[in-house]
């Protein structure tokens, strides 16, 4: 079953076109990656799909709902960890989880979630005192507190050390095992190869290839996903 259907999505900002006719399909239970250079439009696609930005053109359906007109209903069924997320420094881990749980009609048990993500020891720690890795963990837990069917994770492991990245990969696989569809924006081809069932490579506002990691490697007659990626994108020197 298709849970995300995007057709001909267009979005521009004052500076120009960010997304220029993107079409994507994501199936239930997939880990779907979106990769591409800085400024390719990845975050804008995710923001349009999660209802945070209004597209200029095209259609977006998530779980059959239009993120603009059905935003309230959709927010009950999707979770998002977005790139520039922040919380007030003084709010504690426990308070943040409890507060987010209150936004949903049928939330997960936030204490159990806190435990599952190893956050219980830090429940009284203020957000401002958490290291980058613990902030990321908290954001994943917050994205899951509404028991979402679809979760958007944007550059989840960018600020993590290598072992925290590996741990996070395991946690993302756990999310999928529970039947949740995961959309993962990433800059790391090793991450895409390890986690993604399929991925879209974006460049300058367009999808330049979609496929399984193995399929993209084979199609480009490459030895690795890294090589396939660099063959697909135009270096723009940003
Ligand atoms: N709020 C905004 N106002 C103006 N321009 C924006 C805004 N958000 C994004 N853009 C521009 O739109 C284009 C696409 O940005 P977007 O953040 O979607 O790309 P991205 O692929 O996620 O990049 P990155 O890998 O750097 O996060 C870029 O040129 C960016 O400068």
From TrEMBL:
Domain of life: Bacteria
Positions of the ABC transporter domain: 4-229
Topology of the protein relative to the lipid bilayer: Peripheral membrane protein
Predominant localisation class: membrane
The protein's name in its UniProt record: ABC transporter ATP-binding protein
SUPFAM superfamilies attached to this UniProt entry: P-loop containing nucleoside triphosphate hydrolases (SSF52540)
InterPro entries: AAA+_ATPase (IPR003593), ABC_transporter-like_ATP-bd (IPR003439), ABC_transporter-like_CS (IPR017871), ABC_transporter_ATP-binding (IPR050763), P-loop_NTPase (IPR027417)
Alphabetic keyword roster: Antibiotic resistance, ATP-binding, Nucleotide-binding, Transport
PANTHER family: ABC TRANSPORTER ATP-BINDING PROTEIN
Subcellular localization(s) per the UniProt record: Cell membrane
Pfam families per record: ABC_tran
One GO molecular-function entry: ATP binding
